[in-house]
Amino acid sequence: MTLLELIEYLRESILDDTGGHGIDWTTIDKADDEAQLLRWTNEQLTSYINEAINQVYRRILPAHGYFTEFDISVTATNHTYVYDPRILRITWARLVTEDKDLERTDLQDLQLCNRHWRNGTGTPDKYLIDFTSGSIRLVDIPIASDTLELEVNRLPLVPLDWASNNLSPEAALRSEFQILMLHYAAFLAFGKDEANSLDPTSSDRHLALFNKTFPESANAYSDTRKRRTNNRTVRYGGL
User: Quick check: bond before 24 cis, omega within 30?
Assistant: First the structure.
């Protein structure tokens, strides 16, 4: 479905917000006087749909693989790099020039093997993830420049935009999920703290419908791993 079709379904079948008889809501911009006829502008609903898509990606991890957008340029003596915020989970890392796969590790494992990882230099063979800072640290500290390739679970590469409402979500979001994920957009819409849109009962109902299809526990492994890594970061004083 295109963004226009998604918003049409959301307006007509879920929110009942089309502006009244004879109103063409598709032509109304948020800056137009006619925008007051709608409880939610097209731009607002686009933002809600984008967040609904992000929630689906976080819960079921549908987009996985290697994407050049997430390559990291490694420089000598620099061991820590902020990774792209669209990355949800890193599943594999490789140094291109060295043609070397890196092993994921954590702070506790490095402590147990009694490795001088904080200031050791050489060709990296391991990496750590710090979810709090959104960064990846190489172990050992690199002595040469390289490119770090990442295999990841990710969020959409480009969000939907009302100005290009003829475009569709990425193919990773399967068609059978597209209508169902609109319940999260409705949850956000009815949760908007304004007199003509706030409806906590409807908001809660749509969140429950969304959770039924995309349970919060769907990505339990990632959440558990994140908590463990964060706890260790605090315990050992950071990366």
Answer: no
Write out pLDDT tens, residues 176-221.
Answer: 999 999 999 999 999 988 878 899 999 999 999 999 999 987 564 4
pTM for this one? 0.85
Q: What is the pLDDT of residues 139-179, one digit of tens each?
A: 999 999 999 999 999 999 999 999 999 999 999 999 999 99
What is the enclosing helix (H) or strand (E) of 122? Answer: strand 121-122
Smallest CA-to-CA distance from 203 within 189, 182, 213, 214 is with 189
What's the first-to-final CA gap in the chain, in angstroms? 44
Q: Is 174 exposed, middle or buried (0-12, 13-18, 19+ CB in 10 A)?
A: exposed
62-91 burial by CB neighbour count: b if 16+ within 10 A, else e?
A: bbeeebeebebebeeeebebebbebbbbbe
User: Read out DSSP for 123-176?
Assistant: S--EEEEETTTTEEEEESEESS-EEEEEEEEE--SS---GGGTT----TTS-HH
Percent of the chain with pLDDT over 90: 72
Distance of CA 25 to the CA centre of its chain: 29
Using one digit for the tens of pLDDT, what is the confidence trace for 99-146? 999 999 988 787 777 667 778 899 999 999 998 899 999 999 999 999
